[in-house]
Design goal:
Elements: E1 7-8, E2 11-12, E3 14-16, E4 22-23, H1 25-64, H2 70-91, H3 95-99, H4 101-125, H5 133-145, H6 150-171, H7 175-218, H8 228-245, E5 248-256, H9 259-284, E6 291-297, E7 300-307, H10 314-326, E8 341-348, H11 358-374, E9 379-384, E10 397-401
Parallel strand pairs: 8-9
Antiparallel strand pairs: 1-2, 3-4, 5-7, 5-8, 6-7, 9-10
Helix pairs in contact: 1-2, 2-4, 4-5, 4-6, 5-6, 5-7, 6-7
């Protein structure tokens, strides 16, 4: 997807590129949530698979391990490897467990690493040494299969890399062999870190492509603003959030004055350029997750802003009218001789209204837009809704006008 790795709808998404890539702060938070959900699934099933493999190994222990150490092997394997892994899978289905699954999975991984070290040392102390490669396989599990974030995988891997040489040293392994095995464990951790980083990088690129697809499906292709499909969903979210937080919503319908005449006189390319300029202006006023700007249809736009109770809408509406005037775009078919917009806006607090009043608020803003047009255009008409009723003639109105010189 051309440009998907750099920008989405004109917004930079990467704060840092390369091997240790990071998104911009807002997208990084969204990616973390997305990635954590994926890791929950991976940790849940990998724990079951790992426990099953360990159970098979316990059967092999019965056939291959010397009788004098077999009980110790079985106790260590089942108590400190299989049981913790099964517990990780089980608690992942609870809300608390899923929220803290990384910590539980890291604890189970450290327990498994120490259990492998314990079995190797038990065998050596009883004169029946076994191969140490199991600790390397365990390290690769931490980084590649266990569903652990890098820091937790590194904790478990480093625990194994430190605990094993110390245990073997006190168990009497020769210095030369101990040095060689320690080097292999360090190498396994390095390879594991690189593998985990590459997997996270692939996840980041996949997330960027997912964002690109979502942006394409939710954006108006001409202006880059939200389309009607995305607008309905986002408005419902903002309405619910404002209802919980006690914030106001300011909903504004914005329409380009005499746009058909502009299109007929300057051509559709000129009209498209006007819509893109206005979209860019409105986007600057809606640049966080608590606001939205959308193309409602044709030359009509919708903006929704969340605001604290002490921040009235007048200043924002006046600023939009002023900025449109400062575009200084000629419009010979307009009585003003330049481009202008009309705005109908309502200001309300969703927590005081019924959950079904979002549509009524949109209808009220649309009615006020037509009132602004009937009063001469190039102005904003604002109404504050204090109940669940649509705007009526008795509602207090404030008209903000900027008349071209």
């Amino acid at each position: 997807m051309p440009g998907a790795n750099k920008r989405l709808s004109g917004k930079v998404i990467w704060a840092r590129r390369g091997f240790w890539a990071r998104f911009t702060p807002e997208l990084e938070t969204a990616f973390r949530r997305h990635y954590e959900d994926d890791l929950v699934q991976r940790a849940r099933w990998s724990a079951v698979i790992a426990a099953s493999v360990m159970a098979v190994y316990s059967l092999l222990d019965v056939l291959m391990v010397a009788p004098e150490v077999l009980p110790h092997f079985l106790w260590v394997r089942w108590l400190f490897m299989i049981l913790p892994l099964l517990c990780v899978s089980a608690i992942s289905y609870t809300r608390f467990g899923a929220r803290h699954l990384q910590k539980f999975a890291a604890a189970a991984s450290v327990s498994s690493a120490l259990a492998v070290v314990a079995m190797i040392v038990i065998a050596r102390l009883n004169g029946t040494p076994i191969e140490y490669e199991g600790i390397i396989l365990t390290i690769f599990y931490f980084y590649c299969c266990g569903g652990l974030r890098m820091k937790w995988a590194l904790l478990a891997g480093c625990t194994a890399a430190v605990a094993y040489p110390l245990a073997e040293y006190f168990a009497g392994l020769s210095p030369r062999e101990l040095a060689v095995r320690s080097l292999f464990l360090i190498s396994a951790n390095i390879v594991g870190v690189i593998s985990a980083a590459l997997m996270e990088l692939a996840a980041r690129r996949g997330f960027a492509q997912l964002l690109a697809l979502e942006t394409m499906s939710n954006s108006d292709p001409l202006t880059g603003l939200l389309n009607r499909r995305a607008l309905d969903r986002r408005l419902a979210d903002l309405w619910e959030t404002a209802g919980r937080s006690g914030q106001k919503l300011q909903i504004a319908m914005i329409d380009v004055d005499y746009f058909k005449q502009y299109n007929d006189h300057y051509g559709h390319a000129g009209g498209d350029e006007v819509l893109r300029e206005l979209a860019a202006l409105l986007s600057e006023h809606s640049d966080n997750t608590q606001n939205l700007a959308a193309r409602f249809g044709g030359e009509e736009f919708l903006c929704v802003w969340s605001a604290p109770p002490d921040q009235p809408a007048e200043a924002r509406l006046e600023e939009i009218l002023r900025q449109v005037r400062q575009l200084s775009r000629e419009h010979e078919k307009s009585p003003l001789g330049r481009l202008s917009v009309s705005i109908g806006a309502v200001e309300l607090q969703p927590g005081l209204l019924s959950p079904m009043d979002a549509e009524a608020a949109l209808r009220a803003a649309d009615a006020l837009l037509y009132r602004a047009k009937s009063q001469g255009r190039n102005q904003a008409v604002l109404s504050r809704l204090r109940t669940g009723r649509p705007t009526s003639a008795k509602e207090p109105l404030q008209t903000l006008s900027l008349v071209g010189s």
